[in-house]
Amino acid sequence: MAAHTEGSEHEHVFLGDDHDNNARRVWLVIALTTVMMVIEIAAGTYYGSMALVADGWHMSTHASALLIAAIAYVYARRQAHNPRFTFGTGKLGDLAGFASAIILALIALLMAWESVVRILHPVAISFSQAIGVAVVGLLVNLVSAWILKDNHHHAHGHHHGHGDHAHHGAHAHHGDHAHSGAHAHPGAHAHHATDNNMRAAYVHVIADALTSVLAIVALLLGSYYGWLWLDPLMGIVGGLIIAQWAVGLMRSSATVLLDAIPDRQKLPKEIRTAIETEGERITDLHVWQVGPGHHAAIVALTAPVARSPAFYKAKLERFPELSHVTVEVTQAA
Fold first, then answer.
1. Buried-most residue among 26, 222, 267, 287 (CB within 10 A)?
2. What own/partner pairs with CB < 8 Å and gap ≥ 24 does 257-262 have?
3. What's the chain's average pLDDT?
4. Contact 295/316 with Cβ under 8 angstroms?
5. CA angle 111-136-205, nearest 5°?
6. What pLDDT shows up at residue 181?
């Protein structure tokens, strides 16, 4: 996705392949979720169901998180060519995910607290009405999951038929320290892309559906056995689900924001294997994510015979996830 023409500077557009399509789907799910959120919170308050209110607030956290994600999609697209963003705007989705995760964690604590209060001070519940609204909420969650499902699976490795927009020309430069450097974009369309916004949205919708199921079970058992305490207990369970999701999202997004490589990421090792073949030795290697499915790398190496940076850059073209590569070569003493 990073374009380059002769006589122009490199662009650093590292948005996900499905950036615009993801944004449209997020807006659609926001509309569905917001309508159902209002209905559930109002109905739960009127009928005295804490589980229903908890499910409504759970939906509100989902809608809030998706709204942050949607705004991030819009801003990332509008600012994609802004030179102020040195490595593009691909990380805005991760920043939005981290911010929404903090909000979700706070709301989860509030839900748990309100549920505890309801356990200590139980109120009458209109079970039949509350169950009807909870079932509708579950249906909305399932529809939302279906809308986001294709993006979720796509983000786990479906390949595209797009052409390769890679930059196969190396821009070598010689410095005062007797080394050569190359700056290139060997793979613009990255495969196996993971969009943290869409991945988190999909998982969260499933969590919403689970919370709806818990609410329905609590209301059914409560109406049959008279267990009023079970309803707010499900509110606590719903809060724990949100908290667990929030922690997971904070971890995954923080990893990207801090330029850390996940433990499962094999790319640095694969780069070393590709480069160190004829006596070369990598002396400094930095690999980090700059957008969904896009990684940048800085490779400094020594070699018995200092070939051009383009030679080593060509070795890395097998990795489509490498969208921005800088190579520095120094001849071994």
1. 26
2. 257/91, 257/94, 257/95, 257/98, 259/288, 259/289, 260/288, 261/287, 261/288
3. 75
4. no
5. 55
6. 44
Q: What is the dihedral of CA 95, 100, 106, 111, to 10 degrees?
A: -160
CA torsion angle 214 220 223 225 (round to 10): -90
Over residues 96-105, the pLDDT tens digits come to: 878 878 877 8
Question: What is the crossing angle of helices 92-120 and 230-257, to 10°?
Answer: 160
The answer to whether 85 and 12 are in contact (CB under 8 A) is yes
CATH superfamily of 19-157+193-257: Cation efflux protein transmembrane domain (1.20.1510.10)
* C-alpha–C-alpha distance, residues 103 and 88, integer Å: 26
Reported in sequence order, the residue ranges of the chain that DSSP labels E, i.e. its strands, are 172-174, 179-184, 281-291, 294-303, 322-331
Task: Give the global pTM.
Answer: 0.70
For the record, the structure tokens of 181 come out as: 């450097």
167-191+259-333 folds as Alpha-Beta Plaits (3.30.70)
The ranges assigned to domains in the chain are 19-157+193-257, 167-191+259-333
Residue carrying the six token digits 């700059």: 290
Helix 92-120 and helix 196-225: axis angle, to 10°? 10
What is the Cα–Cα distance from 111 to 232, expressed in whole angstroms? Answer: 10
The letter for the amino acid at 182 is A
